[in-house]
Amino acid sequence: MKSAMIPYVSRELDEEEMLFASQQLYDLLKTRRSVREFSDRPVPKKLIENAILSAGTAPSGANKQPWTYCVVTNQALKRKIREAAEKEEFANYNGRMSDQWLKSLEVFGTDHIKEFIEEAPSIVIVFRRIFEEDEFGARLNNYYVNESVGISVGMFLAAIHHAGLCSLTHTPSPMNFLAEILQRPENERAFLLIPVGYPKEGVTVPDIEKKALSEIMKRYD
Ligand code: IYR
Fold this sequence. Notes:
Elements: H1 15-29, H2 45-55, E1 67-72, H3 75-96, H4 99-105, H5 116-119, E2 122-129, E3 131-133, E4 139-141, H6 145-162, E5 166-167, H7 176-181, E6 188-197, H8 213-216
Antiparallel strand pairs: 1-2, 2-6, 3-4, 5-6
Helix pairs in contact: 2-6
The protein binds 3-iodo-tyrosine.
């Protein structure tokens, strides 16, 4: 059955306000960097909750909202996750990744040691929900799950940055150990592991650039 319809409330900015708002958001987002070393200063719970609420506003296939955000602050659990991630990453850096891939990563200086998983006060692990179950246990499909979760995570990262926190998108691979450790239900698959917190004092980031507008936008007027 079609949903009831309600009026859409537009923000109604004038053109000058729109320009200002668009510039302001760009100025904010361009200062976001992936940070690999975190302070142990705890993050107020509400900041993470608000960022997850922001992520939860994302559009999704048939509004199925096929995501679960798990927030791990328990030290023993973080250690377990780090150990499992490092085991997979050791195999990645020592044979599973191609020479070309390893060469592309040289600039970041990454290796299989993932101290940030234990160091960051909060580890947010995002799961994509590939199906739901109705009240009788029958499987109901979710749609465009990767696209939906990707959009939601982008909004989460922006919200975390907007709140003055920093984050890292980490993809240990394969990452099925995360569903096991966190005892997630059968319909959930790990999508991304995101340490969130404050940067360690004096932390540095690679001196790399984003592409110019002319490289990422092509006009068809
Ligand atoms: N998952 C590995 C390797 C890695 C891959 C890419 I692509 C990166 O941008 C960064 C790292 C790791 O986290 O070390």
